[in-house]
């Protein structure tokens, strides 16, 4: 029931004397300062919830909605002076505005233009394009920082692609690249201007049957090379071609560890972007990965070794430069011009070398092997040797290397780099055989010189052989343990690499710029104001609002939380191949460390909407650092925290010391909702795979029960049905179905989604019924026969709020909306109100400040002033959501201070932020 509106003057909620970092309010002071009393606050005379600085009414003809498709864009990253890498980004459109055939171009304020290749990512129900992917090969032709996406009538010719029986050839106007369809070579050759620059590219994994040997122990090590199973042209147009190669690694007749590698070639670009994914399907007790690498073979037989040049880009862009046969530092001077030419990577001609130096050339060592090792996030080293069978010589020590290696001659060169190189340690870059006729460059995603990867569970179960003991373990360390559930089978890792071709040796500055571009590749995005106007991702976030002291304090706190967590990544060393992108769950104030070793309090694994928090913050702010933070988290949580193969696929794992260690395998972690942002903002195809992977995930719930310990009774279901909760489970299912439907407009997917919505609305207590059996094929829930209320404080804090809001914008359904608004209105209501509406006041109704956004949404939709006022009491008038300002404290035994935010909780940080975004947006005008 909507509260009646009493006629009296509007009284905005005003909270005084508030610390932006400590939102705990004294109730008496709150009442005194506002002149309001309890939840019976004098209501406002009129409730225009749709106005204010956080929302602009969307009317025909307003702003961009009827403009000539002139969309403002801003750079998230752009590296001036670097060779063109090309970029792909996503743009949303108003309903009915853009058809699939529409052509576009980029334009700057000076009238310069660059062609764009587009394709649809999502559709509106009327078939118009909702999101477009936009690929541009060389945006550096546009000299202005402020760019616009505008309509074009020009149709650009496509990049040349030729399919053959055993290969695919792509000619982008600068490079001609041949991809294999069978065998071991993913790339068979790369030619530039007809000249062979690379003769092969292949994958290899080094496996050993035990961890690195203890003294007196032996181990066996084998090399597994890529075995191609399928190569396809996944996308092709005027600006970009994408080749997808899938297969497994093979040793003799054995095959294991599948891979998916995507190669991106942009028009006339010398750089190939590589997205590498591998899935672990080994036995963690005897399949220890010693190395994961992509190797490129470069022919060198026509070039003397003193004209073969080695480069590594290290910390802060420092370039390590040497020649295979060095001509500097010799006892007999080859000539100053010769030395200068070699240092610059230019051609040294035989006739220009002094006669005394020529005599000694055969006796100058040829260093053909080089290695850059990043064994630690803050320490790297370079060493070299003449060839296998001889000692390594230490060459250089450094810090955080930029992860780019180069091998070249005066007329040809290959650069190979790994993005997030030091962050994803241990990494390694090898050059082998540079003194021979063909050298090999290898980018090792896991360094062979580091200890072997150990994926075994971190403890032996500690006698937890019964549910009773497992429950006690959960009670003490928050770890949900069950034997066999901590297996890494099916987890994946996606890495980004770049391969660039040169027709001459690049100056150090150019190579430095290239390495920086590898680490921060160019990316465009629509402006926050345009994204907000298009009501993307639920239209629930608004733009920052500092129109009052309290609002400014809230905005400051939102900023401070993101800044703090971003800083903690470096302060606490949240780096590593399997860890980078995640944050910790809870803090141990006694030890002044995060609970990295305490059961379920360690790695966060998306707990309570951490991914959503960062993405919505980015949407509001356009903040570049937050985008990259969220990007790394999306890569991690979508791959490492989810099983993509095996008995648990495609469910995710709840938070744990090991990312895959928890026995709670749940949709709330693998949810498509967490991936939608990155997919639509970047058009990343691997993320598209992850979204599609979740479409039929509900079938896994038939044998992997979502409810964890102490289920009241065994769950027995009919074939094709699963017990599904209306909160974390259905929210994830709905996100997957909604995303697949808008990507394809498949009517069967829409029918399933609608059936699930309508059958929730038909339950005796709507969302408060809590759960039921889902017929997965039809999407219909069985109707419960009684009015029992089953509610959990976790139901709405893993994206249910956000996906319901987004679905209702596109698929109006009055009965479902009524059921959802009932849940939003009553969750934080008084016991008396719930008793009146539901017939009971029983339930677990904590996380009050997190659920303030549900109240705000109900106030917004129902036009209810009392709910609007109640919202701010829920968010600010309780201890939940309050934090103590960050302070600097000394850590014993360390020279440097660590920053500490007392009583910090990632759950609270994420949920308070999400709630604040929506409260400011929906009812922000009532907070002055």
UniProtKB/TrEMBL annotation:
InterPro entries: PcRGLX/YetA-like, PcRGLX/YetA_2nd, PcRGLX/YetA_3rd, PcRGLX_1st
Extent of the signal sequence: none
Occurrences of domain PcRGLX/YetA-like C-terminal alpha/alpha toroid (ranges): 521-927
Annotated ranges, domain PcRGLX/YetA-like N-terminal RIFT barrel: 71-142
Pfam families in the record: PcRGLX_1st, PcRGLX_2nd, PcRGLX_3rd
Record-annotated PcRGLX/YetA-like central beta-sandwich domain positions: 159-516
Name this protein carries in UniProt: Tat pathway signal sequence domain protein
Biological source species: Sphingobacterium zeae
